[in-house]
């Protein structure tokens, strides 16, 4: 871990012109030639995000603030066409795109002259913007008012791709599609599907008081669990779902497909197994609130929200030990288990029995972890504190990629050459 020279929370970092530039709370800006030695400066305004493109840095922030710099140390305040807060900025497709509160979208080819776009598309706050496959995708929302995804392409221009009302808690990838699940404030289960992580469709589960927590794919079937268990009708159709009859069980939090079977875990130490997602068997309860399950090295590992980790060779017989962590997620990749939890907890283990506590780059809760493109990515956050994204090349050395005041993130998955993170108030974020 490097010494940044500031105790303020850092929100974003960019690289260009042989210089790293990081911005943070309390008008903080840092520059570094090597990522090790940092020099602090101070803005005259609160900055929320920055990017580098077209040979310059562009930073955006409160009250429509836009700054440009060629070296990261000398900044020029530009004249914005809005007084709304700007929350995110990106350079792609030969232009800068900044997004902000009350549906604000601005574009610029040079970082100095900005034009409003997509006016009257939404009054919700826009919190994130990404680019891929020739398209810009903007995501946002307001608590208790739902979420929105806005899309731009050269054919259709700016348009609302989808509006969302659910709090999204889990996302997975299988058979060429992403599936995200969540629950709205009327306790209705929602399922969102996308082939590219950008364009989403949703299905509402009409059964009352149906809450969804996790989704898995295996044996040509998607399985969604929570207050009930649903399966997709076919591997190519995640738009139609069937509720399955299962043994009496408590609320379920995590599900995985491995070793030719689904394993679902939940409150009261509930463990259910199924070869096909249709027929389920209840195993001996572990008397703990189990929140996530992973498989690797010929072992299942499940973690609890009250500091316990259990291991099983077959999904039937389990043994465990107590470790500090209040765990929320676990995965297995690259010959090791990685478990994450409250307070930034990160533990690793080669066998599910012997665990090593790693140094986290955040004190916010971590709720999910995934692996792809040779990197681990963990996501989390807390109500009232926003979200956090952390990353590691090996599960041992971790850095904070982003921290924002937008709704917290509940889970992350990797597939189709991209990460997809989902969270509160319909938040969906994508990254290559």
Question: Could you please describe the fold and organization of this structure?
Answer:
This protein folds into two domains: 155 residues, YVTN repeat-like/Quinoprotein amine dehydrogenase (Methylamine Dehydrogenase, Chain H, 7 Propeller), CATH 2.130.10; 265 residues, YVTN repeat-like/Quinoprotein amine dehydrogenase (Methylamine Dehydrogenase, Chain H). Helix content is 0%, strand content 57%. It is built from no helices and 43 strands. The model has no long low-confidence stretch (mean pLDDT 82).
- Could you describe the largest sheet, including whether it forms a barrel? 4 strands, antiparallel
Secondary structure tally: strands? 43
Low-confidence stretches: none
Helicity, as a percent range: under 10%
CATH topology of the largest domain: Methylamine Dehydrogenase, Chain H
The overall number of domains is 2
Q: Output the strand order for the largest sheet.
A: 1-2-3-4
User: Can you tell me the CATH architecture of the largest domain?
Assistant: 7 Propeller
Shape: globular
Proportion of β residues? over 45%
Secondary structure: elements and pairs:
Layout: E1 10-16, E2 19-24, E3 28-32, E4 39-42, E5 47-53, E6 56-61, E7 66-69, E8 76-77, E9 86-92, E10 95-100, E11 105-108, E12 115-116, E13 126-132, E14 135-142, E15 146-153, E16 157-164, E17 167-174, E18 177-183, E19 189-194, E20 201-205, E21 212-218, E22 221-226, E23 229-234, E24 237-243, E25 252-258, E26 261-266, E27 271-274, E28 281-282, E29 290-296, E30 299-304, E31 308-312, E32 319-322, E33 327-333, E34 336-341, E35 346-349, E36 356-357, E37 366-372, E38 375-382, E39 386-392, E40 399-404, E41 409-415, E42 418-423, E43 428-431
Antiparallel strand pairs: 1-2, 2-3, 3-4, 5-6, 6-7, 7-8, 9-10, 10-11, 11-12, 13-14, 14-15, 15-16, 17-18, 18-19, 19-20, 21-22, 22-23, 23-24, 25-26, 26-27, 27-28, 29-30, 30-31, 31-32, 33-34, 34-35, 35-36, 37-38, 38-39, 39-40, 41-42, 42-43
């Amino acid at each position: 871990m490097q010494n940044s020279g500031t105790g303020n929370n850092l929100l974003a970092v960019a690289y260009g012109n042989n210089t790293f530039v990081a911005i943070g709370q309390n008008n903080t800006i840092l520059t570094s030639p090597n990522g090790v030695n940092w020099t602090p400066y101070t803005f005259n305004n609160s900055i929320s995000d920055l990017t580098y493109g077209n040979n310059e840095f562009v930073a955006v922030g409160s009250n429509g603030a836009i700054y440009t710099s060629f070296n990261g140390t000398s900044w020029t305040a530009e004249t914005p066409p809005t007084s709304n807060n700007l929350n995110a900025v990106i350079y792609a497709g030969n232009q800068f795109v900044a997004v902000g509160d009350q549906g604000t979208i601005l574009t610029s080819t040079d970082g100095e002259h900005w034009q409003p776009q997509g006016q009257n598309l939404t009054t919700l706050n826009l919190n994130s913007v990404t680019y891929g496959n020739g398209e810009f995708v903007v995501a946002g929302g307001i608590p208790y008012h739902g979420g929105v995804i806005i899309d731009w392409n050269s054919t259709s221009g700016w348009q609302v791709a989808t509006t969302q009302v659910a709090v999204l808690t889990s996302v997975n990838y299988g058979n060429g599609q992403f599936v995200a699940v969540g629950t709205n404030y009327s306790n209705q289960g929602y399922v969102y599907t996308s082939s590219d992580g950008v364009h989403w469709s949703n299905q509402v589960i009409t059964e009352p008081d149906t809450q969804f927590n996790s989704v898995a794919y295996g044996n040509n079937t998607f399985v969604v669990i929570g207050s009930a268990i649903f399966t997709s009708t076919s591997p190519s159709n995640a738009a139609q779902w069937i509720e399955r009859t299962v043994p009496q069980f408590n609320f379920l939090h995590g599900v995985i497909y491995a070793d030719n079977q689904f394993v679902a875990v939940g409150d009261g130490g509930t463990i259910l197994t199924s070869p096909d997602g249709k027929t389920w068997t209840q195993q001996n309860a572990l008397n703990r609130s189990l929140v996530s399950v992973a498989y690797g090295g010929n072992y299942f590992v499940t973690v609890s929200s009250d500091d316990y980790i259990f291991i099983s060779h077959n999904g039937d017989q389990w043994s465990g030990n107590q470790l500090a962590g209040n765990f929320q997620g676990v995965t297995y990749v690259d010959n090791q288990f990685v478990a994450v939890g409250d307070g930034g907890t990160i533990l690793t283990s080669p066998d599910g029995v012997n665990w090593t506590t790693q140094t986290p780059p955040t004190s916010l809760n971590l709720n999910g972890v995934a692996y792809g493109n040779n990197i681990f990515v963990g996501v989390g956050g807390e109500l009232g504190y926003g979200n956090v994204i952390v990353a590691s090349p090996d599960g041992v050395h971790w850095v904070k990629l982003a921290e924002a005041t937008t709704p917290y993130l509940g889970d992350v998955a990797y597939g189709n050459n991209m990460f997809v993170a989902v969270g509160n108030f319909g938040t969906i974020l994508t990254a290559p």
